[in-house]
Amino acid sequence: MFQGLRTVVYGVDDIAKAKAWYSEILGIEPYFDQPFYVGFTVGGFELGLDPAAPRGASGPVAYWGVEDAHEAYQRLLAAGAQERTPVHDVGDGIYTGTVLDPFGNSLGLIKNPHFSPD
């Protein structure tokens, strides 16, 4: 039934500003860029920006894999994200943390040496 995670969509109030912010954070340009939706390919998954989608940090959190959770967390804060949950060891060498992007959405980071999407 489920084939795996494909897309995480973040609601944004200013799609041009969100596109610029995520392009800078991800270091790539979107593969799909329209006024109604912007999509980035990130490690085989899609990060989408949608001005019609609900915004906020009250729903589930998608955790994006990173090489160094502390470094990624600090980079996001320097780029204008707000601290939500500092990076911490959740056991067995796995580190997680969350920030709020400038548009109010939870953005999770995870360094998990035991998981590979391959």
Automatic annotation (TrEMBL):
Domain (VOC): residue spans on this chain: 4-112
PROSITE patterns, per the entry: VOC
InterPro entries: Glyas_Bleomycin-R_OHBP_Dase, Glyas_Fos-R_dOase_dom, VOC_core
Name of the protein in question: Glyoxalase
Organism, as annotated: Dictyobacter arantiisoli
